[in-house]
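REVIEWER CHECKLIST
Item 1: Sequence provided? yes
Item 2: Single chain? yes
Item 3: Sequence as submitted:
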Amino acid sequence: MISWRVAIPFFLTGTIWGSTWFVITGQIDGVPAAWSVFYRFALATPALFLVAYLMKRRLRLTRPEHILAVIVGIFQFSGNFLFVYFSELYVTSGIVAMMFALLMVPNALFARIFLGERVQSGFVMGSAVAIVGVSMLLLHEWRTAPLGDGVGFGIFLAMMGILAASVANVVQANPTGRAVPMVSLLAWAMLYGTMFDLGFAVLTAGAPPVPTRPEYWAGIVYLALIGSVVTFPLHYNLVREIGAGRTAYNSILTICVAMLLSTVFEDYRWTWLTAGGMALAIAGMVLALRAKQRR
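Item 4: Structure as written out by the authors:
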């Protein structure tokens, strides 16, 4: 029987991350995406440092650890999120969430190349099934193009975001990263990523806007504090409690929540193609994660 210490954070992280994909759509409506990314992490960064302090984790890093934090910050909290926010200008949030559920695939490939981790045949088979399922969803998206003719570009941006997130995931798993308390590494990485986000926003979008809609700032608070500061410590505590493989199962819950919200609020239309694609994607992920868990 699963204990409440595992069940509660498991369902919280999956549900919260599933909702963040839709909340992002409100952050790019009339506001440059680059500034919305900066506002999110400008609020989340000091809050995450406070969490690390309250958890009594060391915040002083060595030079190699700071270099690692810079790399993780640029790929995770800049590249990844910038690509995600821009991709949702062209593709519905549920589809982007579904694509990101395949993060396990480049994670496994990069871990094999850079960390020497083995990839089991069951993982490859499950990933192949999941890729077919996601391809069916993307084919439907391409045909309907509800947000205009830039669906192909949106898919490309989402793929770049997946690769950026994967690099951050793998890089932090090296010996230097393992020696740093996770919350401390994330806090410093978020700080460096936020600094990069600020520079990118100024260069590409000009002066910072000051949105007046209360809904916009409510979304920023939700994404920063609930979608970032709360979930990251919960997620990594789950990794310690039940392992990375079993923790990754919450990506299935994330997908279900994201697609439900996309259906209700973004008028996502289901067909036999999309229903079959989602079923294959979820089944493939289950097969892949089970194979990874047995490794």
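Item 5: Key structural point noted by reviewer: The chain has one domain: 4-100+149-258.
Item 6: Recommendation: ____
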